[in-house]
Amino acid sequence: MSRPPVALASLGGTITMTGNGDGGVRPSLTAADLVSAVPGLADAADLTVTTLATSPGASLGAADLRRCLTWACDSVRTGAAGAVIVQGTDTIEETAYFLDLHWDRDEPLVVTGAMRNPATPGADGPANLYAAVATAADPASRGLGALVVLNDTVHAAHRVRKTHTSALQAFASPGFGALGHVAERRVRYGNPVARHRPLPLPPEDRPRPRVALVETCFDDDGGLLAYAAAEYDGVVLAGFGVGHVPAALAETVSAARVPVVLASRTGAGSTASRTYGFPGSERDLIARGAIPAGFLDARKSRVLLGSLLALGVPEERLRAEFAARGAGAPGPTVGCESG
Questions:
Q1: What average pLDDT does range 179-207 have in this prediction?
Q2: Helices 92-102 and 62-77: crossing angle, nearest 10°?
Q3: Which Gene Ontology BP terms does the record give (predicted)?
Q4: What is the C-alpha separation between 222 and 210, in angstroms, rounded?
Q5: What strand order describes the sheet that includes 234-239?
Q6: Is the pLDDT of residue 239 over 90?
Q7: How far is 263 from 160, CA to CA, in rounded Å?
Q8: DSSP codes of every residue in 186-228
C-alpha cells in the first residue's frame, strides 16, 4: 500500500531543545533528528524533511513565516499531500493564524510542537509529530486551511489559543471547540469548519506595519493607548468583557488617527456591538470609530490587522474583513488556486 507524501519542516522550539547543567535547554535538533525519534512514523507517510531554522518560538518573525509559506507551497505543488511545520509553542496561536490567512491551497498546512523537551520524562514531541503527520496525510483534512495539532487534538488556526504555561493540554479552542482528534493513528473530525478566502501576501519589499496590542486594566489612565495610537500604524485594544474600557480612554479612541480594533481581553467569546451604552462601552467605542473584532481574540486581531494594513486596504474593507472573520460563522470555501 502506497504512503501519502508529506513534507515536514522544522523552525525549532522546545521540541528541538537539548542541553545539560545549569545552562538550560536550547534549540539544536534538526528535522531529521526529530523524525528519526518517532516510532512508526515512516509507516504513516512518505516524508520529505528540511530544517528551515533552529529558533525558539518567541524569536520567530514574519520573514520566517513567509519562508514557511514558500516552502509549503513548493512542497504541495510538487506532489505533497500536506505539509507540517514544527515550531515552538510560545507563538503558535499567532503564527498559525498568519499562515492560515495567506495559505491558498486545499492541502492541509499543519503546525505542531511540544510542551516538554526531549530530555523530559513523558516528552510529548514524538506523539505530536505523529499526529501532525497523520493529519496532514489524511484526505479529510483538505480544505481546512492551517491546522494546529497537539495532544492528539486538531484545532483550527483561527480559533486556537495557548491556555496554560506548561501543561500537555495547553492548547484549546474556546467558544467553538476543537475540530477533531487523532485516535488509533487516524483523524476523526466532528466539528469541521469552512474557510474564509485567503489574503495575498504583500510585496516582500514592503515593511510590515507596526501594530500595537494594548490591554486595558483597572484604573487605566489611557497613557499607553495614546502613545500607541500616536507611534504605531494600528492598535488592537483588548478591553474588558465584551469590549469595554474606562470612560477616560474613550476620547483617546476618538482622537486616534490610525485604525483601532476593539477585542476582548478575556480569551473567549465575542465583543458586543449594541448591548451597553455607557461612556467606554462597546457601542460608544464603535461610534467613536473602533472596529469590533467579534470572536477574534486580541492576538489574532493584531495578526489580521497587520496583514490588512500591509496590503494597503481602505478602512471600509478593514471593517468588512473583521466583521466577516470575527463573526464565528464559516466563510466561503476556497479552491487550490484562490488568491
A1: 91
A2: 50
A3: asparagine metabolic process
A4: 19
A5: 211-215, 234-239, 260-264, 291-292
A6: yes
A7: 16
A8: EEEESS----PPPPPPPPTTSPPPPEEEEE--TT--SHHHHHH
Determine the Cα–Cα distance for residues 239 and 281; give it in Å rounded to an integer. 9
Per the annotation, the verdict on 14 as an active-site residue is: yes
- 205 band by pLDDT with thresholds 50, 70 and 90: confident
Kindly give the pairing relationship between strand 260-264 and strand 234-239. parallel
CA 133, 150, 38, 130 dihedral sign is negative
pLDDT at residue 333 above 90?
A: no
Give yes or no for a contact between 243 and 218, defined as CB atoms under 8 angstroms apart: no
**CATH number of 295's domain:** 3.40.50.40
Specify if 100 maps to a domain.
yes
pTM of the model: 0.94
Tell whether the model's pLDDT for residue 319 goes beyond 50.
yes
277 contacts 284 by C-beta, under 8 angstroms: yes
Domain span at 74: 5-189
Residues 20 and 158 in one domain: yes
